[in-house]
Amino acid sequence: MDFCQHFQFRGHIDPVTPLTAAYFHGQVEQPVRGLMSLMQQKDLPVLIAVNERGIYVIDQIECTLLLGLKYDELSWDYAKPSNVNDPECLPCIFLQFGAVENGIAATKLMQIFTRQAAMVDALITHFIEQAKRRKESGGVAGGAAGEVPEVPIVGVVGVGGGENPYEAEPNPIQNNGVGVLSNKLSRLTLATFDDEGRCIGQTGSLAISY
């Protein structure tokens, strides 16, 4: 885990704003199509940035933000490796979030492999609990107009934030209304669910599970 204060990367809505966060090393599957799907592909190395505002997935090679979510826009789950004796079988973090495809609301599921998954899970839990305590103590007003609704949990056991204690901050995370950089989703291996929880698309190892 690395603590960085002025990590600059391309693709952020506000690229000149330094982001203080804990950074974890991980990897994600790259989407492949056609004949390339018959060949073994290397995973894409990523940085997982976690701070009190949300979680970010950054292409470590190109220093490009692939996904940025506030805690009230996601559900997550921590999964241990299926074979603890296999060094190539890594624990992972599942991220579930809302997106819009062709004008239709959908739910996306992303899998991030990292040996530091337990630490990522613990830090997310810490920041969400911290936000809840802050709200309960009357430090931040909740339920503001225009607040993004909680993403329903579909297809994975997770914990939704459901609260947004950061409306009053001077430089809030900006998004397209569903909390995701949708122009980068084509670079990610995802499972897609409709509003009734049916899996309507999956790629990579996620295709095995649904």
Automatic annotation (TrEMBL):
<dbReference type="InterPro" id="IPR011993">
    <property type="entry name" value="PH-like_dom_sf"/>
</dbReference>
<feature type="domain" description="KRIT1/FRMD8 FERM">
    <location>
        <begin position="45"/>
        <end position="123"/>
    </location>
</feature>
<protein>
    <recommendedName>
        <fullName>KRIT1/FRMD8 FERM domain-containing protein</fullName>
    </recommendedName>
</protein>
<dbReference type="InterPro" id="IPR057096">
    <property type="entry name" value="KRIT1_FRMD8_FERM_C"/>
</dbReference>
<dbReference type="GO" id="GO:0005886">
    <property type="term" value="C:plasma membrane"/>
</dbReference>
<dbReference type="InterPro" id="IPR051594">
    <property type="entry name" value="KRIT1/FRMD8"/>
</dbReference>
<dbReference type="GO" id="GO:0090090">
    <property type="term" value="P:negative regulation of canonical Wnt signaling pathway"/>
</dbReference>
<dbReference type="Pfam" id="PF24522">
    <property type="entry name" value="KRIT1_FRMD8_FERM_C"/>
</dbReference>
